[in-house]
Description:
This protein is of the alpha/beta class. The protein folds into 3 domains: 45-301, TIM Barrel, CATH 3.20.20; 358-576, Glycoside hydrolase/deacetylase (TIM Barrel); 605-869, TIM Barrel (Alpha-Beta Barrel). Helices cover 40% and strands 13% of the residues. The strands form 7 sheets. Strands 18, 20, 21, 22, 27, 29, 30, 31 and 32 form a 9-stranded parallel sheet that branches. β10 (368-374), α14 (379-392) and β11 (397-400) form a beta-alpha-beta unit. α9 (211-220) packs across α11, α17 (434-452) crosses α18 (468-476) and α29 packs across α30 (839-852). The N and C termini lie far apart (74 Å). The chain crosses the membrane at residues 5-24. This is Polysaccharide deacetylase family protein. Residues 77-290, 652-859 form the NodB homology domain. It holds the Pfam family Polysacc_deac_1.
Amino acid sequence: MKNKIIVSSLVLFIGACLIGIFFFKDFFIAPTGGDYCNITDIESSYNAEAEIAQALAKMKSSQDKATVIMRSNSGQRRIAITFDGLTDGTSMQQILDLLKKHNVKATFFVDGMQTAEDPQTVVNIKKAGHKIENYSLLGISKMETLPVERVVKDFSRAQKIIKVITDQEPNLLKCNDTNYTDQLLQAAKACGFNSVVKSDVFLNVKQMNSLLAADTFVGKLKPGSILSVKLKPNTEKIVNESGKTDLRPAIDKQPGLKELPQEANLGEKETIAAVERLLIAISKANYTTAYVEDFAADSSMQNPVKTTFFQNSINNVKESIHYSFFIKIASFLQEEFTSLFIGRTAYAAESVNSEVQEIKVISTTEPALSYTFGGLANETVVNDVLTRLHRLGIKATFFVAEVEMKKYPETLRRIIENGHEIGIAIRPKDGETADETRSTILRDSKKLQEQFGVATNLVKQPWGAVSDTTKEVIFSLGYKLIGQSVNVVQNKHKDYTSANQVMAEIFGKSMLSLARGQIVHFRMDYYANDRLVGDLAEIIKQRKVDNIAYATFYDNPANNLSNDSQYTIKPVGEILNNTRFIYRYPVDLTTVSAHLKNDGSEQMIDTHNFLAEASKRYIGNRDVNDNNNMLGFSKMDTRRLDKSGLIHTKDNVIFITFDDWGTDASVNKILYVLRKHNVPATFFILTHNVVNNPNLLRTIAMQGHNIGDHSDKHKPMVVRDPKTGKQVNTQDKEEYIQELATSYQKLLTITGDVNVNGKPMLTKFFRPPTLAISKMGIEVLFETGYEFIVSGSCNTNDYRAKNVPQLEKIIEDGVYTENGEVRKGAILVLHMLDSAAYTAIALDILLTANEAKADSDPSKFKVGRLSDYLIDGYSQISRKSLK
Ligand SMILES: [Zn+2]
């Protein structure tokens, strides 16, 4: 509503301004109307009235349609990349630089309005040798729903603007998320486009978060694909034009201990990084790139969808020619502004809806994951699967399509009788409208309820990219769109006969286990071998789920009921409804305590008190001393820094810490042992990969353990140069600040709101990679708000242990003195890596033996939580006086 008021008042104002021009020439000089007075320039140089009239006349006289360029079938190993819409000039330049670097040709579909706003950028794209094509006036979506006259005006105006600026007329047109109906294709043809373009793949910037992800994405591309990157327009512009209130959403202060040097838009950066990864993966995969127009010859013609509405628009043409100048301008502007608002709102809606994503991994800390199944056509397979699931005690989710409910009602009943969950499978036809999708879902839902007695709110589209329309429909109905993180049955495996063959290709060597919240999907109607799906369901459980449990010869979930370390496989809906474990990711930063969001400014550590503070807040290690790994400190300085690695305390207390990062298979075993003995620990996280498994990190915090930082990429502060033998910093100050901010931000967005017994589990403790320190590194840590640097008294090197007894011995030496007394304040440095295979067992043995001791036994220790000891006012210096 607000927008409408703004638009109307603008139009009125402009109207008044123009009347002023005609009747009171002095009005024009008045400063009030100044900004809008070059409207006449827009009107003249970008005036497309003649083109519009011509196009509308053409539509009347000819039924010719533009062809649709789609994925090329030529079989050549090439793809066409398109960029849809424009983003800010700086980001565009970075994209152009990347294309140049990777020697890639691209097609830029630019929208008329942004081209008018930023002509230089468009000229630069052209100069760089790429093709410029038309993305309509504003890149608005669902253009098939607009009256045809409006569409013709839109196309023609965009075309005129691009022509004026680039001195060239685009041949191709692309509309954003639009069904190319007959009518649209006629309109396009009438406006001078031979073809419209339909992409078959869109780059998902969020998913393209690593080179590996890019490789996987490119690996799945089909040769001949038209791959599109949607660039977001600058949504802030309109706010400035309204000149009233700032409608931008409040931007959270950049989370992290230290604010990152914040550039205008993180989204843009993310897009650019994603594009770079994409280009690297493309060249690695030996694809060549082509312009979309090169695909025109070998693209298959699409059969356009029939439409019923043909607007009365043509009648309006004559009238519009007789419009007075004033009315023409006013209507031009009104339309321009209205559509501008519609356009922006559409984008805004799109970004809101980006949260309406397919659930591929459920954000949960429950030790559970899901199997989903689809495809009822082969009864033998379905029966085999049901038998196996029954034997394994697994309840799963089966997605059924409408046609399957009709054709195989008995099979469906059997699935339901077996206690499995049912969801709806949909396969929207190309160009299906929102209404059609909506009624399919509602019809299926009704049928399930009435004929089979089950209610569901789960929907899955078993193959093909889910369109925004489908997502919106599912969301608006209150249903959940379920995807998968592991797709067991892949096209290339159709004729595979053994589960081992398939396993090797799905999981590779590096995927040791599945994870909490994952969804594993199986298609039952695909393999030539009828037993293969059943085999895989069993083997995946055995090798990738059961291996997560802590199962030693003396403590195994199979015969110890209190061993709760086994993950369960349950229906998707059950995991989603278990709100005790479900969480919001990323964390809502407004709920995070101020202390965790603050930067280091209140610490007031400067050159005067730096050394005094460092000696209070650094808990060292005996191998880190004046000749080794202490770059930048003088000999005098190093004497003031701790080398004991023991926490300053009179209690018989030790501390257990784990470094780096692992998988559910390694971390879950550790968590179970800690839970079994009811002891807290601190996990110093190497954050590089945590975003791939936030559920696991969140679980650690939820179980009452401290989370500390161990850097993002494990670069030590200092290394020894092998040539000179001298110690050198590995990063400069700015790089180090950046690294720490990145790392902390990841921890914050996954665990920032986790409190146990009223205390946050995230800490501002840092463990230096390799334990090496430098003066500069410690300065940066203080500057960025870290409070304690915690190395430790016992390097166990557990990942190198050859067997349990060997590790046991090392740990015991770390915990007890030669006299068998507890080393008060000892910190064990252990690892959560998969390679640290004996760590959980060795700890279990240590803690079991300790529990068996009498309380009066001086060798009995308790396990402390670092955040209870490293509090305000703690000082590591005074430990000498303690003795
Ligand atoms: Zn480490």
